[in-house]
Amino acid sequence: MRFSRLIILLFALFAIGMIAAACTADDNGDGDAAQGETLKTVLDRGVIKVGVKDSQPGFGNLEPDGTFAGQDIEFARALAAALFNNKNSVEFVVASAADRFELLSSAEIDVLIRTTTWTSSRDIDLNASFTVTTFYDGQGIIVNADSSIQTLADLEGSTICVTGGTTTEVNLATRLGAAGINHTALSFDGDAEILAAFGAGRCDAWTADKGNLAGQRANYPADAGGPDSLRILPVTLSKEPLGPVVRDGDTEWFDLVQWVVYGTMVADELGVNSGNMQAMAANPPNKDIATLLGVSFAGGAVSGFGASLGLSPTFMQNVIGQVGNYDEIYNRTIAKIGLERAGSLNASWLDGGLIYAPPIR
Length: 361
Description:
This protein is an alpha/beta fold. It has 2 domains: about 15-135 and about 240-360, 3-Layer(aba) Sandwich (D-Maltodextrin-Binding Protein, domain 2), CATH 3.40.190; about 140-240, D-Maltodextrin-Binding Protein, domain 2, CATH 3.40.190.10. The protein is built from 14 helices and 15 strands. The chain has helices spanning about 1-25, 30-35, 40-45, 70-85, 100-105, 120-125, 165-180, 190-200, 210-220, 250-270, 275-280, 285-295, 315-320, 325-335, and strands at about 50, 55, 60, 70, 90-95, 110, 130, 135, 140-145, 160-165, 185-190, 205-210, 230, 240, 245. The longest helix is centred in the first third of the chain and has 26 residues, at about 1-25. Residues about 1-35 have low confidence and may be disordered.
């Protein structure tokens, strides 16, 4: 009798465990992606879903014609070119500061490429893995050109616009608090709301990543004074490394996202661009370029790294041919908002900057 009861109890516990596992899989939405199989899910779907911003010129912005533009957008297209040989096989999902990590963890997007700062708490606590940094930014402050505010100390008693729920909000409180500068932080959901508040005079200053401020300044409406009516203070409040983010526990997908981006950096270092890529592939001048493009060198075996990523050996030809190398992407997007690459942290390591890719070998 006792033996029978034990068998029944064990069977009941097993059944409960199976039901709980099934419910967990259902709650995760996209089951394959949740189990660390994002690459398979994306390939089966035929399109990559990328969380982006739609209000930051230079990085992620919705243009008047309804298309997306910016550096983050170009890296999304680079992934699509690598996966499908079609840079347009991408679905852009607008991700707000408040919901971006939820969209990622619930597998509603495959990767987040949305000016998201790499921090310890986000990396450790949010089921997120940050890949390569694509832009080294820092937090700044913008004011009206005729404002009396010239330094941080001049912000005493001011009202400052900031996006809520961001590292920007935390940095503002920390930096000005440490300096003993009394101020009022006026929080908003996003750039559009801040633009309206700033234009209406509700804020004396606006703080955000300098890349964002430069983009907003470049596109500031002519009827509000245009770019010359704004001034960015010569101060930097923080470090803001930005780049693509994927879910924890998905090494295959992490590697793919990271090395597609690294591939654009390596192409820049080696002088391979969209204009000369085909000639380089047909007659590579050295083994490093042959490896990057997935072709043989001097009659030897093909030594590309695409197969290790589950891609065609020539996938970087698709990326470079359709999107370009890192420098081409930068000049097409960020340079347009007035942030020159030369002399900045985002210059190549060959020119004293921090853009540096591990060797492909």
